[in-house]
Amino acid sequence: MIAQIIMYGVIIGIFYALVAVGLSLLFGVMKYMNIAHGSFVVIGGYISFWLFNLLGIDPFLSIPFVLVIMFVIGLIVYGLVFSPLKRFAEGQRLGNSMLITFGLILVLDNLVAFLWTSDVKTITAPYSGQVIQLLGIRVPFTSLGVIGVTFAIIGILHLFLSRTYIGQSIKATAQDWEAASLLGININRTYLIACGISVALAGAAGTAVVLMYSISPYSGLEWMLISMIVLVFAGLGKIREVFLAGLALGLLEQLGVFLLGGHYRAVVGLVLFVLILILRPQGLFAK
Amino acid sequence: MLEIKDVDVYYGDLRALTEVSLTVNKGEIVTLIGSNGAGKSTTLRTICGFLRPASGVVRFSGQSLVTHAVHRIAEMGISMVTEEKRVFRDMTVFENLRLGAFMGKARKRKDETLDWVYKMSPVLQERSRQKAGTLSGGEQQMLLVGRALMSQPELLLLDEISFGLSPLLVKNLFKTIKEIHMSTGMTILLVEQNVHMALELADRAYVMESGAVVAEGQAADFLSSKQIKDAYFGVTTEECR
Ligand SMILES: Nc1ncnc2c1ncn2[C@@H]1O[C@H](COP(=O)(O)OP(=O)(O)OP(=O)(O)O)[C@@H](O)[C@H]1O
Ligand SMILES: [Mg+2]
Asked: CA-CA distance, A13 to A6, in Å (whole number)?
């Protein structure tokens, strides 16, 4: 029983990290909050759904396409939604970013309902429903695939941020944009790229969602809440801690489900969310 | 090389600079001195593009700077070490220096420049794998200067780099600045509280008071003229002895 809680907790936790990592990047770099993050997760899921249904592309193989399409959408979102926020004084930008992306949810969710109807969609690949015995526990094949994808994506993101000039300029901008701009780093361009990456990561998480669960036009809120909880666990704006934070949430949630029953799954996360904001606002893993 | 003429700068309604004019010629070290709140940092931040003058001219190598973004001005060859200690704390010393060479032409020659910076300040090489936030104050200051040098600027702006350092560290830092100037002929505009040391290093000096330039001249003249010294920085010069 314990082994099963841990196994499922780890699997779901790693998946949660994938859901949240894009939002963490956006907040870390720009200090903006994107309430519509969950809606982008859902859109990514629909794109995978389309690629699978219309073109027969395997969802795992569709991830690179989803990343590219969502990256472009992220660039557009930056231009239309976030870039205008620079007019505001620095102290007002966070609040305004929340308001404007809240409005964005309404636009996106209705657009999605228009494009894909409000039916619940999922992908049934040939291997859906297959399970693998792992340490005596039955684990869905798709979950393991999602874990592999998450490791790959977070690994590549890490290499990109630490090894390339653009990645380093993103990190520098996140820490101190004034000092970064003095080194010749174009802050607007850095924000643009970071927003593209953030939305692309949301899209990849969407592929995972449509494989492991299902999507519908108004289900973005659930993923937004998960992301918020992971962010608070990790400490706002900390990218590296997101992985551990996702794991922590996954494990605690599974423990809660075991102790209290499945109805309380979401409640566990929200209660922890509030507790951590009160007791450890700097995040679980801050020194 | 740098020409500032009749520049007015406001913070909201508050006028911080009033008709400030100064020039820095190629290869010179010029120092900007004056008491707290005189407007020295404001002047440097205006040159870099963080602040926009309400009126007046800021020109670098003949080009007006006042409409350019900060990163564009950096690309034109101006680098600044700001008053606040601003290393990228979560990045290693090496990563900080490498980012200094972010811009195209500096990036091509970053290995040579890095060797040169390491030679100038071996402690940076020793600590190259360490997080910048773990360095001591003096080391961080050296790192900031090194990072600015990595961009191979034509004009280096230094804002109170000696602040908070022990006299010995200050002496070393100034020695390094002097070496940099001797070996590259780099043009430097230096803001300092440490008036005596700044005047010894500089060719010329400007004195600011309440947002305006109130005196200018050869640094040596300021140093030798007891009157001027007492008038503008009586206390400070005594402290430096
Ligand atoms: N961000 C700001 N907003 C409003 N007023 C400011 C701001 N920064 C500086 N000032 C004011 O502008 C004036 C000039 O400040 P500045 O920082 O340029 O002085 P300084 O000569 O660099 O002083 P110090 O030696 O203390 O660094 C001061 O009166 C200061 O209070
Ligand atoms: Mg100052």
From this structure: 10
Query: pLDDT-derived band of residue B225, with 50, 70 and 90 as boundaries?
Result: confident
- Average pLDDT value for chain B: 89
| pLDDT of the residue at B241 | 40
- Please tell me if residue A166 touches chain B, with a CB cutoff of 8 Å: no
* CA separation for the pair B227, B220 (Å, rounded): 13
Compute the distance from residue B44 Cα to the ligand 2 centre, in Å. Answer: 9
Task: Tell me the residue range of the domain where B135 lies.
Answer: 87-153
Name the residue with the closest Cα to ligand 1, atom 28.
B37
Tokens 């490498």 — which residue? B98
Are B161 and B179 members of one domain?
yes
Same-domain status, B94 and B142: yes
Average pLDDT over every residue of B73-83: 94
d(CA A214, CA A51): 16
- In this structure, how many other beta carbons lie within 10 angstroms of the beta carbon of residue A70? 29
> What total of structural domains would you count in chain B?
2
Same-domain status, B167 and B232 = yes
Q: Indicate if the pLDDT at residue A237 is higher than 80.
A: no
* Domain assignment present for B180: yes
Segment 107-126 of chain B within 8 Å of chain A by CB? 107
The reply to whether B182 and B141 lie within a common domain is no
B239: confidence class by pLDDT, cuts 50, 70, 90? very low
Check pocket membership of B120 for ligand 1, CB cut-off 6 A. no
In a domain? residue B82: no
Q: What is the mean pLDDT of residues B219-227?
A: 78
From the CA of B213, the nearest ligand is 1
Residues with CB under 5 A from ligand 2 (ion): B 41, 83
- DSSP designation for B131: B
Tell me which residue in B82, B86, B98 faces A168 most closely, judged by beta carbons. B98
